Amino acid sequence: MANFESFVILAEMRTGSNLLEAAINMLPDTHCHGEAFNPVLIGYPNKAELLGVSKATRDADPKELWKKIRKAPGLNGCRYFHEHDPRVLGPMLNDPKCAKIVLTRNPIESYVSLKIARSTGQWKLGDAKHRRVAQAEFDAVEFEDHLEALQNFQIKIMNALQVSGQSAFYIDYEDAQDIEVLNGLAKWLGVADGPDALPDSLVVQNPEGLEEKVTNFAQMEASLARLDRFNLSRTPNFEPRRGPNVPGFIGTSSGKAGLLYMPLRPASDVELRGWMGTLGDITEGFSQKTLRQWKRQTPQHRSFTVLRHPVMRVHLAFIALLDWDNFAQTREALRMTYKLPLPKDGQSLDLTAHRAALLEFALWLKSSLNSQTSLPVHQLWASQSTMLQAFASFATPDLLVREDRMATDLPYLLKTVGLDSKAPLPVSDQGRVALADLYSAELEQAVKDAYSRDYMQFGFTDWTD
Length: 465
Known about the structure:
By secondary structure, this protein is α/β, with parallel strands linked by helices. It has helices spanning 17-24, 55-60, 62-71, 89-94, 107-120, 140-164, 179-189, 210-213, 217-226, 269-277, 288-297, 310-323, 328-336, 351-369, 384-392, 406-417, 441-450, 452-458; strands at residues 6-10, 30-32, 49-50, 53-54, 75-80, 98-104, 169-172, 250-254, 257-261, 281-283, 300-307, 399-402. The strands form three sheets. It has a five-stranded parallel beta sheet with strand order 2-5-1-6-7, with helices on both faces. The longest helix is centred in the first third of the chain and has 25 residues, at 140-164. The protein is elongated and about 85 Å long.
């Protein structure tokens, strides 16, 4: 049995946390101190302090109150909701001596109960004769926000437990009213004697079915039917995560103003670097430290990257694969293991063979991006959405320039930092073979299958549109 020194009930409003707290407080030498870290109260309404700690002291440093709770006689804990002080959640979740009790409830039930409680002002009920009756009006947008907050909190808890190798005691709203489950919780906490009966200080406030509690029940049913409960529309992403590749960034500055280019390979670096050189001094080879210094020294700066149509991206990546010496082993693996019709080194492809090989490469990319091949996903054909996520781990670009809109987007970017250039704008790289001579509907579909997230995220249409 785990030797816990404290506990926390990780719950939300209207999930039965008051009842669960009452049940826990029936256990010998076990004390739950309410919503100890609720920003608007300390423990319970109308209390000025908890365990000798004032609300002002707690707000200045919530860890002081958590220390008091942990060191109080017996086994002590509190209830914590996602809206409570986030500064104390980490110490709770990371402490293996703190028992995590995760209390959940059907989200639509908790949402309706919350709406009714806010309407009546009644948050607990000790006797049915004092019950205030009201109905809730379902709001689809409001419910989706409610659901997202609950899910995000649960994901955060689950991830913290997984990373630290801990487990939790999961209990549902209905389980909290089951005496056998409550006795199981007592055993898990290491408390010798579980409760003999349910707490009699609280009763269920709204026992009716949802149809009786919601004024627009039919509308609610229709709205819930449209919700993707199981996230069926999500595009799975098994592509390896990447670092931000800060050394590849290119900066230019003139006085206090400057631009930072964050390339998505393969990129028109030569043309863009030349154009940026007309604006000021070029700086490259950044580390994260030197890039922060550059940003401080260039306070009026903007960062950008250039999005390329996925078909053009695959086309240019394939040319690099054929031409670059450092891809010799990759070419050999693609020929021998994956049977792609690539020329041997020193040989070339005619237009028909190039078209066929490009299509096979595009078809192979789907497996590559799903981490189903022995070859690593090279940055030249990594999805642009994954590359942008990598940038975001350090800093997000201010502007996503569309390659076919550079003539419009780059002058706008200059205007935002008060720079001007008379130099010709960069022209995008088209490769040594014209894509128009290689393009087919089959190629477009193969690229769509491989880069479905990019098409969805960035609104790409067919390359010929």
